[in-house]
Each structure stands twice: as structure tokens, then as C-alpha cells.
Amino acid sequence: MTEESQPTVFSLIIDRKIPADIVYENDAVIAFKDINPKAPVHLLVVPKNPAFRNVSELAAGDPTILAEVVRVAKELATKFCGGEYRLVFNEGESAGQTVFHVHAHVLGSGLDGALTEGSLGD
Length: 122
Ligand code: AMP
Hints:
- The chain is an alpha+beta fold.
- It has a single domain (9-108), classed as HIT-like (HIT family, subunit A), CATH 3.30.428.10.
- It contains three helices and five strands; from the N terminus they run H-E-E-E-H-H-E-E.
- The protein has a five-stranded antiparallel sheet with strand order 1-2-3-5-4, with helices on one face.
- The structure holds adenosine monophosphate.
- The site of adenosine monophosphate (AMP) has 12 residues, from loops.
């Protein structure tokens, strides 16, 4: 197996080879709590198909799944933070992407308080 084809940490979570705090799953996507949260609510919504490294590839290759990621993000935001949320896709190392298996960050304030502008900054 080449380095390129090593499963990502998210594939390991999908395959239950490493644990995660899973909050949603269907045939197409899985969602779990980010291990290093940057906001009171910080979830990741991940297509199960590992073929797409970033959101541009997903939009071009399978826009239906991108729409499903957005739908699930809204459903989870409604459950965890009152329906208002920030949806972030990092694309490329210089933009902060560290896992090259497309995923959406769902960031929210929780049910009391607001998300500050700096809450995504490292
Ligand atoms: P990105 O920097 O956009 O590629 O986002 C990757 C995210 O995955 C980061 O916010 C990490 O904290 C998160 N992450 C990495 N490993 C795990 C894990 N095992 N469980 C949950 N979240 C993880």
C-alpha cells in the first residue's frame, strides 16, 4: 500500500477501527464530535466515501453527497445549538486542512451565548 492510499483517521472511525463520539450516521455520511473542539459545539460531518479529499472534489464528483452533508449539518445544529451554526470546509494545508478526507466542521455556541469571530482561530 502506498502512503497515498493509507486510510485516513476518518476512514478508521467509519470502519470502527478507532473510537469516536458518533452523533449521527446513515448510509452516506457519519458525524462525530471533533476531538479538539474550537467552539462549544464542534462536530464533523464526513462522507463515508473516502474518494474525495476536499469540498471542491466532492462538489464536482458527487454534489448530491455534498447536499447531504449540508442537510445533516443543519439537522445536527438544530439538535445541538438551536439551528444557528458556522459551516467550515478547510481545503489545503495552508488553509489548515490536516485530514484529506472531505469533512465539514459544524461550529455552534451551544444553547446559551454566541459564537465569537475568533472561535475558529488557532
Ligand atoms: P481539518 O484541519 O479541517 O483537516 O480538520 C480535521 C479535524 O479533525 C480537526 O479539527 C481535528 O481536531 C479532528 N480530528 C482529528 N482526529 C480526530 C479523531 N480521532 N476524532 C475526532 N476528531 C478528530
